[in-house]
């Protein structure tokens, strides 16, 4: 009986040592998971700042588009005034030629402004798409973080139960 008891004690000691090693490894994993969670939360903070940066860019682009549209409207009004002036005052062919040149220049400016507006709209759409992708990435990271946390908590609980059982 003593020999079997000694063997059983030795087996239990070995098992206890194995469990202690496993517990240490689990604690190391927990520390590592905590570090990963911290890194994920930092990257989430970066995603939030990128998101606010994107929204600031959107606001800036929108205000710029509005300014360009106002300039465009002003130039169109000027063109209309020039056309009206050219119709009412056909005093000299030189003035008419000058007005037409100015009209052409203004038309080119309008065309450039319209191109700029289109580019700004496209860049605005690109920024909105990027913003949506960043929000999706953030949500995925949060889900992954919650999953890791739940797994960590479950592992700790299992190890505590196992340790208590032993």
UniProtKB/TrEMBL annotation:
One of its GO terms (biological process) is cytoskeleton-dependent intracellular transport. One of its GO terms (cellular component) is cytoplasm. This is DAPLE protein. Signal peptide: none annotated. Keywords: Coiled coil. GO terms for molecular function: dynein light intermediate chain binding; microtubule binding. The keyword Protein transport does not apply. The keyword Coiled coil applies. The gene is Ccdc88c. Residues 58-165 form a coiled coil.
